[in-house]
Every structure is written in structure tokens, then in C-alpha cells.
Amino acid sequence: MNPFEFVIALVVLSFIFKLALSALQHKNQQRGDVSAEAANTELRQRLEQMEERVKVLERIVTDERFDLKQQFKDL
After folding, report:
1. pTM over 0.90
2. Contacts of 10 (CB under 8 A, 6+ apart)
3. C-alpha closest to that of 14 among 40, 46, 38, 42
4. CA-CA distance, 8 to 46, in Å (whole number)?
């Protein structure tokens, strides 16, 4: 995965997350405000998990050994 593909993947992931967040907010408005806090807590946990995954991906892609492995694969 080259840096351009990584950036595209991040943009797509953020778009999907925003879309899911929007859908969940719409559902919460229909159900009422009682369960909205529980949904917000769940979404915050998911966001934290996604942020951690992105950090790990950034670490992998920026690692010097990753680039070396990619060069070996290309050969």
C-alpha cells in the first residue's frame, strides 16, 4: 500500500464513519432521547477504536522496514 492509497483509505473510512454516525443519529431521534446517551457512548467507543486502528496503520506504513518489505515483494 503506497501513501496515496493509505490517504484514500482514510478518507473512505472517515466518510463511512460519518455516514454511520448520521444514520445512528437519525435512528436515535426516532426512538427518543432516553437511549441517545447509550448510543453516544457506544459511538465514542467505536471512534476511539477506529482512531487506535488508524494510529497502528500509520505506524506500519511509516515504518522503514515496511518500505523494505514492499521493495522485496516488488522484486
Report:
1. no
2. 54
3. 46
4. 21
